[in-house]
Amino acid sequence: MDAASRPAVVIDNGTGYTKMGFAGNVEPCFITPTVVAVNESFLNQSRSTSKGNWLAQHSAGVMADLDFFIGDEALSRSRSSSTYNLSYPIHHGQVENWDAMERFWQQCIFNYMRCDPEDHYFLLTESPLTAPENREYTGEIMFETFNVPGLYIAVQPVLALAAGYTTSKCEMTGVVVDVGDGGTHVVPVVDGYVIGSSIKSIPIGGKDVTHFIQQLLKERGEHIPPEDSFEVARKIKETYCYTCSDIVKEYNKHDKEPAKYIKQWTGVKPKTGAQYSCDIGYERFLGPEVFFHPEIYSSEFTTPLPVVIDKCIQSSPIDTRRALYKNIVLSGGSTMFKDFHRRLQRDIKKIVDARILASDARLGGEAKSQPVEVNVVSHPIQRFAVWFGGSVLASTSEFYGACHTKAEYEEHGASICRTNPVFKGMY
């Protein structure tokens, strides 16, 4: 049996979470935090051993290479033992620590997927605006360390758009609003080609919403153990947050009927095991509001998400704009807030309608412009739309022809990963 007759392995590495599974499945087999816990004591031991005792030094080095954990296991190890240090290999969508990333992939393949990398083609994802060198490093690790037969590196938003294949009609033209843990990308795609010059990036993601909720709880004086506060804020965000249509109305609702809207959170202190509880009030709607009014969170970036999406479409070629407004696709866990798509659609429609009115007023009624249809698409799979798009792409027969193979890598080197056989135009 050759590798092309087996399902490909699809790994979507995100800043916060990594989704992995086999092509052809609807959901990833594992969703795990992108974090590695490395045992520092071995590294120090290998440095401190005397130069003469090379065997002890070598074995300490080998142990340091083997003694590490990833995902939830890494988080629990670092809590329970002070010898393990956490390392987050990806920041804002870009890999920054390649050693940690290699270790992370190693456990993904052998401990989680439990497959031999030499028997499967691999599809990995990368965020838009990634330097081509990063693709080369990825190719090098995959071909050299894991000896994979074939590799395909896909751009996340294109896969998120491909996730819509299974819906009623296949549209490869649209704007992908990918709100990840580390940042947000707004990417226009026309007929499967990314319009690179119009990509917009926002330094606000899921992690910022969590930080903001953590900050609100702290300022209000809720009694949450400091070492647990980030985790509690994340769980509150995922369980109770929603998007509101008007902040003032929402404040009034909460003030009038606190019993209905204010929730209780109970947790256990990690050190003592004692129970504690806290109220969850305004955070429920103020958290997601960060995307629509960023100034409440930070003064560094103040442009709301709907304005950024509008600017992105306006900077695209004029003949594609109507089609782009018609198909705004959401992707990523932070778009899962209740009514997020409705609020986004309403705000973008306001901007577009105001522009049309201004244009009509300027022309003095001589020419009437056609109304522009704005549609924000929300579907149940948007939480891991990128992974699902990868699964769809990697289960087509054309996929194996588009992959870079081991033979090509041996002939030309890592530079083959710079080009993308399917989307040659842009990437």
UniProtKB/TrEMBL annotation:
- A GO CC annotation given for this chain: cytoskeleton
Any single Pfam family the record assigns to this protein: Actin
Where in or outside the cell it occurs: the entry states: Cytoplasm, Cytoskeleton
The primary location reported for this protein is cytoplasm
Gene3D superfamilies annotated for this entry?
A: 3.30.420.40, Actin, Chain A, domain 4 (3.90.640.10)
Gene Ontology MF term list: actin binding; ATP binding
Please give the SUPFAM superfamilies that the UniProt record associates with this protein.
Actin-like ATPase domain
Q: Is Ribonucleoprotein found in the keyword set?
A: no
Q: Which InterPro entries match?
A: Actin, ATPase_NBD
**One of this protein's GO BP terms?**
Arp2/3 complex-mediated actin nucleation
Domain of life assignment: Eukaryota
Q: Which UniProt keywords apply?
A: Actin-binding, ATP-binding, Cytoplasm, Cytoskeleton, Nucleotide-binding
Q: Which family does it belong to?
A: Belongs to the actin family. ARP3 subfamily.
UniProt protein name: Actin-related protein 3
Q: What is this organism's lineage?
A: Eukaryota, Viridiplantae, Streptophyta, Embryophyta, Tracheophyta
